[in-house]
Amino acid sequence: MNRSELVGEIRKKESFLCVGLDTDFDKIPAFLKKLDDPVFEFNKRIIDATKEYCVAYKPNIAFYEVLGSKGWESLKKTIDYIPDNILTIADAKRGDIGNTANMYSKTFFELYNFDAVTVSPYMGLDTLVPFIAFKNKWTIVLGVTSNPGSKDFQFISNDGQAVYQKVMSDTAKLYGSSNTMFVVGATRGEEIAHARKCAPGHFFLVPGVGKQGGDLKTVVQHGFIQDCGLLVNSSRGIIYAGSDENFDDKAGEAARLLRDEMAGLLRDHNF
Amino acid sequence: MNRSELVGEIRKKESFLCVGLDTDFDKIPAFLKKLDDPVFEFNKRIIDATKEYCVAYKPNIAFYEVLGSKGWESLKKTIDYIPDNILTIADAKRGDIGNTANMYSKTFFELYNFDAVTVSPYMGLDTLVPFIAFKNKWTIVLGVTSNPGSKDFQFISNDGQAVYQKVMSDTAKLYGSSNTMFVVGATRGEEIAHARKCAPGHFFLVPGVGKQGGDLKTVVQHGFIQDCGLLVNSSRGIIYAGSDENFDDKAGEAARLLRDEMAGLLRDHNF
After folding, report:
1. Which has more pLDDT, B187 or B258?
2. What is the pTM assigned to this prediction?
3. CB contact under 8 A, A62 and B93
4. Domain that residue B195 falls in
């Protein structure tokens, strides 16, 4: 899915919502656990209930990996089930040298056919190349995160420029906004504004709304650009909105509420 | 495997060699491809041929992930096959916030029963906690790497202290040398010396000897401590030393040569 197609979906749905499929086997409603593939059955119902309100799904790979081979099968079925007009993001945060990065890019872009994958920049710009080399795929580079420890290394400053700012500026200069995005933590408006200066034309994937405490209005205020330039993720606030047989209705309701809030904000920005 | 057991193995074998199981399906000798699980059969023969000369095996997870569910099964069989007196390291370079890191730690320490896992520090010290919380397991934190792009962000300097030095110093202060190690790239003696100053008592996993161009003598000169404190990895130089039916003999020979060099260096240091 290219940028204009993604922006087209945002316009059509009046939403820049990404639903995080952090599907924890222990939190799946009991009645689904009797089925053959509870993780897929859970995701399928979540997708059916929310696909009208979101433009992206982001499975968190850790939650599938921990289930072994069966988890990877559930992941594959989930990706195959997601409609083609919705962006699929592997939240994998991989990062390694050339031939290893090459394997990781093949895993997510070819084997599982994701549209996008998150990667960690610690090892340097050359480690991003195998991902970015894929045509019609998105590489989403960790910029600034919202966890307490994000201050430890991302904010080390040289001549007034923090590490995360250099990561974003250098990556944005090398790699165009048509196939690269950044992860930008949502809890601090100031950081979103700084991040936006480093990468004025790139999409941001903002993971902090919901349980991580970000505020949608702040994100839009500091991160919005002409063609939106934002994907805002919510995981637990949507997929665990309910816990019994009508969990999917509750998830749909939670997604619809966020979409409605997004639609209002998009209108405020004459989008 | 705890530190004194690991050091005991190093003494016994006169070796601090780690064999990297970066098993690329395309490079497996043709005669093995007729078997049911060529990746495991390849690893099994490599392990049989090299186990006398090494103290650790390090499967590179990317090479298994790219094969889907079958790859994870080959990985599991490989780990189960490695003798208990040899350290098993998952080269995974994972790094994510609390509940996600928790899943990754369970994957490698519980499901696959690795002794150690490599992790990326970009997101901060708190993201290491779920790994370090595991009893009798090792967390190996990326310090400085040897790829060309390592300069991009690891060497950003604040008051004369590079990012990688802060990563290592801060981690070493918080987390003891009995269950934490660092990845230290091998191509530059100066960096190994700097890294050693940041973490004087921790083991280093040095991945750069062999195809990545590191020199064993330089590594020992700058990194050796009283109980050795080094694991030096070689992957391609060993596992692809041969390419036909006697590939395992060639691998054993390559491992033995490195062990012999290591034994000489250990004696030079009165170990």
Report:
1. B258
2. 0.97
3. no
4. 3-268
